[in-house]
Specification:
There is one protein chain. By secondary structure, this protein is mostly helical. The chain has one domain. A three-stranded antiparallel β-sheet has the order 6-5-7. Strands 1-2 form a two-stranded antiparallel ribbon. Strand 1 and strand 2 form a beta hairpin. Helix 4 runs antiparallel to helix 5, helix 13 packs antiparallel against helix 14 and helix 13 runs antiparallel to helix 16. The radius of gyration is 20 Å and the shape is globular.
């Protein structure tokens, strides 16, 4: 595999396209002022990261995730109504005015700075995906309770919290670029919120994207002394990025955000590789398919642009990464944008039972994504 250089920070490009920097500052300042002291028992750090500001209310959303998963699970009697109530109305992140910060509030909000809405061409696209699982509609129409549970659990923890994390990192960068590096109201505060959404309180981190890094690294042998390489890299980047924001070191905090996104792509690529390969199961193919689906949605918006291909008249496919139609021979090749992403979506189509019963290797569809982010085969490892 030939790897190209990292082509810059995708999330910054998405931010520029959205043109949201101006409105984000006031939105985040509003979030800062209404935080409650209800979580005063929390200490100043989680997972080795020490917060520069008070984001206890945001950290409490991780407990909402844990409670939602419990309610929606088989042990909870597949109580999707309770899971939906927690998602929409909140339970643990009470604000000073007695209202609750909610997972749905973030997922459905217009103008969040994570790029998913641009990719899916829909405002509140993260919420659209989660609500389909909650209500058994759209991609989840007619599926089993097991599949709906996996959709609720995996989409909220991964697509939802990853989107929130990226939004906060972008917001921090926008504020720092504008010169606002005050710990309590500026870029460091947003950066802290990013870690709150990515890792959350130590006692609830089993419901976080950070914990997914731990699990996938164990699956693929990408650990050092039993600790996920992706998680270590992300933790160090967040710590270094906070210091860079406080020092107004643009190159430093940009590189830190880049590292976080790179390691999210590593982890969720591993997850897609794992669960698509297990779809030949006699008993659990549909469960594995929806797990692959939910993990893929965490990074599809950050991957699809690098899966373009030229389709030869004989049916052979040549991947061209993020190149356009000029990379194809117009006389005997047809350009297909997002070809690899489309193929993964075909495999993970929850409405297509014919995809079940087959073990898939989606490596070819992801290799140019990895090339873009500077991800090597050693970073991905081998599933066992």
């Amino acid at each position: 595999m030939n790897y190209t250089k990292l082509k810059g920070l995708l999330l910054i490009a998405l931010m520029a396209v959205s043109g949201l920097a101006g409105c984000l500052a006031s939105e985040e300042e509003d979030e800062t002022t209404d935080a409650t002291d209800a979580a005063d028992a929390m200490d100043a750090e989680d997972g080795g990261y020490t917060y520069a500001s008070n984001v206890d209310n945001h950290r409490s959303l991780m407990k909402d995730l844990c409670d939602m998963k419990t309610a929606a699970s088989s042990d909870g009697g597949y109580d999707f109504a309770t899971a939906k109530d927690i998602y929409m109305n909140g339970k643990n992140a009470e604000k000073s005015d007695g209202s609750y910060r909610t997972l749905a509030g973030f997922a459905s909000a217009d103008g969040k700075n994570h790029g998913y809405d641009d990719y899916y061409n829909a405002s509140g696209s993260v919420d659209d995906h989660i609500m389909a699982a909650m209500d058994g509609t759209g991609d989840f129409a007619g599926v089993s309770d097991t599949v709906r549970y996996q959709g609720i659990a995996k989409l909220t923890v991964n697509m939802g919290m990853v989107a929130y994390t990226i939004h906060e990192l972008n917001s921090a960068i926008a504020k720092a670029d504008a010169g606002n590096v005050d710990n309590d109201s500026g870029a460091p505060h947003n950066w802290d919120e990013g870690w709150a959404f990515f890792h959350g309180p130590d006692e609830d981190w089993s419901c976080s994207p950070a914990y997914v890094m731990k699990k996938r690294a164990a699956d693929f042998g990408t650990e050092t002394d039993g600790v996920s390489n992706a998680l270590t890299a992300s933790q160090n980047a967040m710590i270094d990025g906070l210091a860079a924001l406080q020092a107004e070191d643009s190159a430093g905090y940009t590189a830190a955000a880049d590292t976080v996104v790179k390691n999210l792509v590593i982890t969720y690529s591993q997850a897609v590789l794992k669960y698509t390969s297990k779809m030949d199961s006699n008993d659990s193919a549909a469960k594995y398919q929806v797990e692959g689906y939910a993990f893929w949605k965490a990074i599809e918006a950050y991957s699809a642009a690098y899966t373009n291909a030229c389709i030869h008249t004989d049916g052979n496919v040549t991947y061209v990464g993020d190149s356009d139609a000029s990379a194809c021979d117009a006389t005997n090749e047809t350009f297909d944008g997002h070809y690899g992403a489309d193929k993964i979506n075909e495999i993970l189509n929850l409405q297509d039972a014919t995809q079940l019963g087959t073990s898939y290797d989606v490596t070819a569809h992801l290799e140019h994504v990895w090339a873009h982010y500077g991800i090597t085969s050693d970073d991905i490892g081998s599933y066992s």
